[in-house]
Amino acid sequence: IDRKRKRERVRRLEEVKGGERTYRFALVPKFNCANSPFFTAAFNGCQQRAEDLGNVKCECIEANSFSPEQRSRQELIIANLTARGTFDGIGIAVRKADDVVDAISDAIDAGIPVVTFDSDSPNSRRVAYIGTDNVAMGRELGKVLKQ
């Protein structure tokens, strides 16, 4: 999606503020929201924005485990959210990039925008990635440590 289309989507969200329809967004973190300060902050931010808009709901949908199986659970969560058809957008912090590619594509095909945050799935059709370029950060950190 180009920048103009991204701006249009953000603008449309502002335009729905206080409308009759309720919009639902799912946040799918890598770890339990309650056990991670980062994901707690992300969820709180989502809830605050939802409250500001008035007719938006933000839900944290957790895989509830820290095991390797959580990767496939994230895929199942996205598939379930897509099948239910009751969410208007999904934000996911991906455990393993390739495990969610197909589920993200299915959500996009169903008209549900998916944004990755904190960790990306670059081979997916996600709408956007919000996070740090860890490779660039590592290079810069290496330069600083070398000094």
Automatic annotation (TrEMBL):
Organism: Odontella aurita
Name of the protein in its database record: Periplasmic binding protein domain-containing protein
PANTHER family: ABC TRANSPORTER PERIPLASMIC-BINDING PROTEIN YPHF, D-XYLOSE-BINDING PERIPLASMIC PROTEIN
A molecular function (GO) term: carbohydrate binding
Cellular compartment(s): Cell envelope
UniProt-listed InterPro entries: Bact_Solute-Bind_Prot2 (IPR050555), Peripla_BP_I (IPR028082), SBP_2_dom (IPR025997)
Family: Belongs to the bacterial solute-binding protein 2 family.
Annotated ranges, domain Periplasmic binding protein: 34-146
